[in-house]
TrEMBL record:
PANTHER family listed in its UniProt record: BLL6794 PROTEIN (PTHR33376:SF15), PTHR33376
InterPro entries: DctP_fam, TRAP_DctP_sf
NCBIfam families hit by this protein: TRAP_S1 (NF037995)
Domain of life where this protein originates: Bacteria
Protein's UniProt keywords contain Chloroplast: no
Species per Swiss-Prot/TrEMBL record: Marinobacterium rhizophilum
Protein's UniProt name: TRAP transporter substrate-binding protein
Amino acid sequence: MKMKTKTIIRTLCAAALTSTLALSAQATTLTMSNWVPPTHFVMTDILQVWADQVGEVTEGRVKVRVLPKPVGSPAQHWELARKGVADITWGNFTYEPDRFKSLWFAEMPFNGDNAEASSVALWDTYQKYLSTNPTFAGVQMLGVGSLGPGVINHGSKDIITPQDLENQKIRMGGPIQKRLIEELGAVPIAAPATKAYELLEGGVLDGSLHTMESVVNFRLSEQLPHHTLIPGGFYDGTFYLVMNERKWKKLSEEDRQAINKVSGAAFAQLWGQEFKRQIDNATASLKETGHQFSAPSPELLEKIRSVRDNLMQEWAAQGADFGVDQPKEMVDFHRKRYLELTGE
């Protein structure tokens, strides 16, 4: 009897082991390249959350493994996915402005104060107008997101009128921010946000463009105590989450459908909710510590609007060059979706 029982146990254990090995063999592991610190909220509260969701909805058949270090610079991450150096990457469209000129409209002033609504509106706009655009070929677009309302931050004074900006050295990124700074009479200094601290400490900069969460998360609170909040944002930023197209097509139809359920609009919502939460928390924290928050004068607001209108007209006139036949229609659709999502 004991021998029979032992035989049954061995058989069951062998079967369980075989089943486990079979599942392991069937599981697909996708690599993700991440270029922010592993403790940054984009990694912990957005990308890792999404990666965990992928494992759950595919019942463990697809796993996402974040690489211990990035396999290239932030600006290279689109190409890294397209070429399959990493299976999945994320990045900022602004890092390749000429390539992704079709998305400039979503980075201009007055894009919106609600990062969740602007992120979802951006996804819906991409799906309707850009998903078949050759610019985006070679990857599977898994999601997009917006940075949220950009703020004019200064080290020593409130920026209220156009005169307050004259000859001020302001850190910025991308052609839209550069044009805004130049036409408002300030001196644009191109530098990544990660360099803002040392440039402010060294007196190279008088101010720097950031969202409120960026002021806190890049530890610039002491260097930038003055903030001018432009209704709808002085600028915005757009981001992507993409996967190598060949690797995507190798997944089963069942797993692709499952991953799509936690990607697309769902990812845009996840992204936007977290950025909105970070912005709201940072704003409240800085107000509590005595930071100065200013509203722009009507004169400054009108000047920003004038620069934006000129930029938008120039951009729309080049629509054929970046594969958009009806750029104004696309902009109007994006705005309409944003207003629907915010209930305005």
